[in-house]
Amino acid sequence: MPVTTAIESIIRRVDGVTTDAYKAQHRMTAPVDSIHEVLAMLHGDYGFDLLVDVTCVDYLNYRDADHRFGLVYVLSNTDNNARLIVRTYVDDPEPTVPSVTDLWKGADWMEREVWDMFGVRFADHADLRRILLPDEFAAHPLRKDYPLQGRGERHNFPVLTRDHE
Amino acid sequence: MSLSSPASPTDHADSQSDQQSQEYLWTLNFGPQHPATHTTLRIVLKLDGERVVDALPDIGYLHSGFEKIGEHLDYDQYVTVTDRMNYISPISNNVAWHHAVESLVGIEIPPRCVYLRTIICELARISDHLLCNGAVGLDTGAFTFFLYGFYQREKIYDIFESLCGARFTNSYTRVGGVSHDITPVTIEMIREFCRNFPKTLRDMENLLNRNRIFVDRTRGVGVLTKEEAINRSCTGPIARASGVTVDLRKDQPYLAYNDLDFKVCCATEGDSFARYLVRMAEMWESLRLVEQALENLPSGPVNVGMDDRAHKPDKTMVYSTIEGAISHFELVMSNRGAEVPCEEIYAATEAPNGELGFYLVGDGSNRAYRARCRPPSFIHFAAFPHLIRGHTLSDVVAVLGSLNIIAAELDR
Questions:
Q1: In this complex, which of A50, A62, A81 lies closest to B233 when CB atoms are compared?
Q2: What angle do CA B80, B85, B86 make, to 5 degrees?
């Protein structure tokens, strides 16, 4: 089934889904309430069995942006190599999206990384801990309001000393 | 392995026997500094004797904020950072990054550049697989195999040195081209490599393919089924060793792969040995690709023209002509470079380790608004606990090596 058929069919089935394309790359935008439903449909009914990537964009200073965070799911169909990008938008405070770990086990670490870097929560994620940064780190550094050089967190890390010192 | 519980018959409640079986579990820290992790990563292993009950990966030791840096360097500068992601095959990261940038901006690179990039990508694939398989051999006790591989890797370093001056962190590509055109000397070096490499590869295959110790250590170890491989987002040689026939070079042909003849190497077993075999077979295919691309290397310019306002002119042009100086100056000015659309794109290439993609958001300036890297190591390492559960401690290195985890790419 070509990607366009899948997109049209989803638009008929779920309210609020829109589609566009850039350089022959098909994209779909779904409201955050129905994002899990849409992804489950794409996974189950339309054969998008490979979750290539989950990532996030912070649109804080972006031109004409209506929302703060954009979640991006890159999907692939291993049978016919069709690709589709699904996006959804969430806002402060407490940005939360449903987790897709129940559909793809591979989403586990990708979602943890998004939580770590952007502070976007994934509801129903079984193990939503920081993954790259230490647990005591307080900020989410890939947000646009976080400075490139950090806020001096490294200086406050506990240091292990030798016993005789 | 069964450990009889020494409990007295009087206190035989269920909860207590549970607790007692727990007492025999012990925890082993594997890494972050350990010769067999090869890079800086830590796995907390829960062991029952020698049997691995569970593995908890703890990563982030090499996190250096590459994606944040990507938002503060321009599209040409960031290529030096991509070198440091997967430092086993840096030049294929360069190509992946600029493939994404050129897809976003819409720059069509000249045919000579297309073929040149194909050649270096395949050389990088050979050098990656030599090291990866070499490390698997090394960890399972085959030191000669590793040295054979490393000698040829050194030859590839020599080729890269002659190509762009850097042996390891090449930073070879630029937006719309490459930093230096290939010279006849380098072409001759690649030809010589193509002549000599098959002998080494055959020697390496003879050393390990039917080696009793190696086969016993790797066959049936760390089995990843086809369904699990897809569900866990695996790509590259790891997915192909499990029978998933994905290869971006065939699925979404980029560079010159559409014109060249090669096979996608697959296996169905999904164990460490299958991953080793797939990588060995891929080196033969890469060699064929290098030979074909070299014979068909088009003449003509290697970079896009000055009118495209994407590629900085040659240094000789910049220093000796006014047009070159103006063109260079305009490109480094923040508001004069090539026009980047306010758009988003996901572009991926088949890196030696799997699908290496970049999700780029342009905001009109010469810097990326967001430069997400989809790192294959990160995604493959997430599957590691699933692969190692139930195996013995000595299998940890056989599985870890066959996944080819590069910590710099894992943590970025």
A1: A50
A2: 115
